[in-house]
Amino acid sequence: MDPPADGPAIPPIRRLRRPMAGWLALLFYGAMLGAAGTGLMLQYHDRLEHQIDLRETRLRTGGDVIATMARVAAAEIDALGTAASLAMDRPPALRLPFLRENDRFEVPPGTGMTGRLTGRLPDDPSTMPALLDEMSAVATIEPFVLGALRQLPESAWIYYMSARGFLLLYPFDAGEAARYSDAMMSAELMSRARPDTNPTGRTFWTAPYEDMAGKGRIVSIVKPVIEAGALPPAGFRGVIGIDLTEQALARMLDEMGLPDGLRMLIDEAGNVIALSTGAGPLPAVGDTGLPDRIWQAAGGTGALGERISTQARGVLRPMGDAALFHSRIAGTPWSLIHIDRMSGLKTTVLMSMWPEAIAALLLMMILGAFESHRRMLRRLSRHRTALALRVEELDRARRDLAAARDEAEAANLAKTAFLAHMSHELRTPLNAVIGMAETLKAQVFGPLGPKQMEYAGDIASAGGHLLELINDLLDLARIEAGEATLDEEIVSVDDIVRPAISIVSARARKAGHVLHLMTPSRPVSVSCDSRKMRQVLINLLGNAVKFTPDGGRISLVVRLMPDRSLTFTVTDNGRGMEAAEIPRALEPFKRIDIDPMVRRQEGAGLGLAIVASFVKLHQGFLDIRSTPGAGTSVSVRLPVDRIRMS
């Protein structure tokens, strides 16, 4: 309304502010609607990405489970192959009796074996003694087979198949199908193991096939057995195999905890090893088209093999209406594949967001334009002040951290110098103490009483242990100071391995461990610092003895790799480590929590740190793989340019 004529005039500013308030309110609500829509869209993408990441994590974890099972199978098959090779080299303790069935035979139950041994009698009677010797020798590996069955509950069969025509099968099965047949000699697992197709005697995985004993579709990990000290083809005796059923592998795929989508294991040739539940029946062996059919049915385009070759490993991302995850299973020729439709996942995410959408609309209707604006400005002002204070605190903390870092570096240098100086100072009198104790033990200055001899031995033993610790400290000080060098020479692998085994074997026997050694069949030499390489093996074997409960199994395997590099692998079945404990174990003076059941706990925590440094000096690579409760495997790989073939 217009004011009375005699009233005071309204300033122009009052007439302009009233309509502008409505426009500002409309603009504010429009901005709020835009912000709410943007927020909902961002939340939708975040939730979708979260669901995709969740599936990727579960699939990666499931793939790691299958890879772990494959590594256990590979380790067990290597141990069984080594045990069988060594058994062939020993004379038979007792020949097994057998029952003749025309041209076939079977060892009756109750002969000390829990497996089933069947075979064909040789046409040439002169070969019968060799057949009996091999039967008796291979029967001695039963404890290793039983241990492998406990380690691999997923296995269907573990067996030894001889080129002379007999089969030793675990567990025992009295059925007619679970016995030797001539068709086994032409099967893939035997043909691929023969020296003419497998001259290096490497372990391999077979394609899927139907089990003759009725366990359905299976795949096998197979290792040729070469008699110890013999060379192929004369040394070829047969194969050790472990069978895994499709049902066991499919159960692993189902246990990944994903509600939809299809998972499968395929090999390099495109054969389907296993499918998750709901994928329908498996194709016939040799049908490599099923993966492409599943991919295209889910909305994917092109061939699945082309997508895998162009996609980063371990990625789960939409490709049209399909999503793909794939990952190589380490130690096998298999790949883990997951295929899913994205439309169902998007619908699920949208349906779960209706409460947020309604809440956003109600909030925008309730808030007042000017009150919200005022409160927002006040809140921003407080945040700005708090942010300025926080920036000042962070800057002060940064300066304090820089000063602390400088002090820590100075202290570390002082520590290194102190360790080097004190190690030199302590070694001279300690060598004198050890020498005098050895002189007393030798009774150079006259006979000693029993108690005096005992004390002299204790002094020498304690002094030797202390000298080892001081030498480790001195090596560590040289490494940290950058003064460690290599005294390189050409030395054979046996000259490195045998002394290390000799030093550790006494402690291993005292603890009741079984210590295995396997070296290349052909002479190999290495350009290295022999003392440092022996120290690497002594430290690794010593750790294996120390952290393995009494009666364990420890092996040192030296392999010449296909690329002509050389690996030294120390494996035990001790307590193992968590993945987070491995970096800590590599740090100097750091020790992981010790198993109270393992009593050999001496040491200062320098062994692995020195091993890592010595391997780095040789331009080598250190790989530690460990499973809690199952053991640890440590591999040292020397590059090709350090290997010399005789």
Beta-strand percent range:
15-25%
Helix segment tally: 15
Major sheet details = 9 strands, antiparallel
Structural class: alpha+beta
Low-confidence stretches: 1-18, 596-600
Termini Cα gap: 112 Å
Task: Tell me the overall shape.
Answer: flat
**Rg from Cα:** 35 Å
**Could you tell me the mean pLDDT?**
79
Q: Count of DSSP E strands?
A: 22
**Helicity level, as a percent range?**
40-55%
Please characterize this protein's 3D structure.
The structure is a single chain. Strand 4 and strand 5 form a beta hairpin. The N terminus is likely disordered. The longest helix has 78 residues. The chain is flat. The relative contact order is 0.07. The protein contains 15 helices and 22 strands. Strands 1, 2, 3, 4, 5, 6, 7, 8 and 9 form a nine-stranded antiparallel sheet that branches. Strands 11-10-14-13-12 form a five-stranded antiparallel sheet, sandwiched between helices. With 646 residues, it is an alpha+beta fold. Helix 1 crosses helix 8 and helix 11 crosses helix 15. The protein starts with 11 loop residues before the first helix and ends with a strand.
